[in-house]
Amino acid sequence: MNKKKTLYVPEGYQDVSVRQYKNMLKLFDKKLPEKELSLLVVSALCDISKEDLENAEWEGVNKVMNMVSWITQEPDTSPKKNPLIREFTLKGVEYGFIPNWTKLTLGEFADLETYTGLGAYDKLESILSVLYRPIIKRSVDSYTIEPYNPNHEKQQAMLECKMDVAVSAMVFFYRIGTILAKDSRHSLKP
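The structure corresponding to this sequence follows.
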């Protein structure tokens, strides 16, 4: 008897972990036939084994592929569509985005520089572990995050962070870069 499995199909970045996203990205680097690539992408994004999907009807897999096609498009960079997510909870721990960039430590700066130089998506969990850290103190309108102390466990924990957090941070820095580029052009005019 064939037992049917329930398939959870992600509808947005908030439904996909960094781990799932990175697993999916690796597939596009391979030169795979369309059917196999589709099976593997659905497997990566829906957390279902390839073996379970191989018994599924192609029409169903193709329908799911169309449902997740949004993930291959560039994220919207408007502040209204992708505002910076300053705080989120992961496995019961509240994390906060670095609250004051004027007080960035040398270690934070050096590690961000290194990780982004190695590829933003390749080291995404490491980048997130610098940008977001556990909140240790709250006041009415602010919070304090734990001091920067990089380690492998903290980086690995960020593999379960949802991609909407990661995309919001990337879009935040993209917008800052765009503003700085415009301001630089204006200030360089004679």
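Residues 87-188 form one domain.
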